[in-house]
Design brief:
By secondary structure, the protein is α+β, with helices and mostly antiparallel strands. It has helices spanning about 5-15, 15-25, 65-75, 75-80, 90-110, 120-130, 135-145, 150-175, 180-190, 215-235, 235-245, 270-275, 310-340, and strands at about 45, 50-55, 60, 85, 195, 200-205, 260-265, 285-290, 290-300, 305, 340-345.
């Protein structure tokens, strides 16, 4: 259901200072991370008001509708306290296209006399209300976004469900991809599923400071030898990974040393030579590259070839369905716009 809670919270925080304080205390996931704010000169602040921005047939959509959609497209705007100026025009255009599309979809649902059952309405209202951390927050939403009217709130719910129903009716069946259709695409495009030789490894690296003294270099070598001794006793992925988190200096230590699948051609020749002599689960010896030391655990070694259909079927079906859905949605948008009167205000 496209009746968004998070963007509602963002709008509430911009509209009322008292509500903003309440939001900040109840929505920590929306707080900016320290050091990630953009300089003010690079920010385009969002202004929320009820000024009209576009007329779609007889319906007028406002700046409030537009900004809500802009936040949905770029939720990091809360973190940055606005939209990056370089991206703001693109975000605004995308948001404008979306609110026009949804209004046209809503009007089409009304034209077809589509209805929402009382049970569906009740479930949607309950689901939406549960997202608010308190009754006070919900009351603030009713006050600022629904003009103090519960009936307006219910109409917003109903509108969202009608849009969802129309899109399901128009798009879902057209987007469905059967196993047979996925197999036909796979057989017709074999080049898309060829891959080179890859390895999946975890690493532990000991990296002394640049221009380190001989004493520090020797200490790094000892640390590397100690790490290798412990790594050789690691019985599985987890044990090696915990050791990597504790001892490794490379960027992958925060992910249990896991570098996932790597094209073997990107690895140094000594590593490649070692990989081709190892079995999955084995730990390599110690390698020195410049002043740095590294070792790795081989998790998987895949020869060059073509991915089997059985191994990629679900991923392929999902990809094809997404592509078909987007194509069907674009076609629907064109049909809805064909006889519509749209005026930018």
């Amino acid at each position: 259901m496209r009746f968004r809670f998070t963007t509602t919270i963002l709008l509430l925080s911009m509209i009322s200072g008292s509500v903003a304080a309440q939001v900040a205390s109840h929505a920590p996931t929306l707080k900016p991370e320290s050091g990630t704010e953009l300089p003010p000169a690079q920010i385009a602040a969002a202004v929320v008001n009820d000024n009209p921005v576009v007329r779609v047939n007889d319906a007028v959509l406002t700046n409030r509708d537009l900004v809500r959609e802009m936040y949905a497209i770029f939720p990091y705007a809360q973190q940055h306290k606005g939209f990056p100026k370089g991206l703001e025009p693109q975000i605004r255009k995308g948001a404008l296209d979306m609110i026009i599309f949804e209004e046209l979809a809503y009007q089409e649902a009304l034209r077809r006399q589509m209805v929402v059952s009382p049970d569906r309405m009740k479930r949607a209202e309950t689901q939406f209300k549960k997202q608010f951390p308190s009754q006070a927050m919900f009351n603030s939403y009713i006050k600022f976004e629904c003009k103090g009217s519960v009936q307006v709130f219910r109409e917003k719910i109903r509108r969202s469900l009608l849009i969802e129903a129309l899109l399901n009716s128009e798009l879902q069946s057209k987007a469905t991809v059967s196993i047979a259709q996925a197999r036909a695409y796979y057989d017709k495009n074999p080049h898309e599923y060829r891959h080179g030789e890859t390895v999946s490894i975890q690493t532990i690296s000991i990296i002394p400071p640049a221009n380190a003294s001989p004493e520090i270099q020797q200490e790094a070598k000892k640390r590397a030898e100690d790490a290798l001794r412990l790594a050789k006793t690691a019985k599985d992925y987890k044990q090696f990974g915990l050791l990597a988190e504790k001892m490794s200096d490379d960027d992958w230590h925060v992910n249990m040393g896991d570098r996932k699948a790597i094209d073997i051609s990107t690895l140094p020749p000594p590593i490649v030579e070692a990989v081709r002599k190892m079995k999955p689960g084995e730990v390599s010896g110690l390698f020195q590259f410049g002043s740095n030391y590294t070792m790795f655990r081989l998790n998987e070694h895949t020869a060059a070839g073509q991915a089997r259909f059985e191994d990629i079927r679900k991923e392929l079906q999902n990809s094809l369905q997404k592509s078909r859905y987007n194509e069907a949605r674009a076609a629907l948008g064109q049909r809805l716009r064909k006889n519509a009167k749209i005026t930018i205000l």
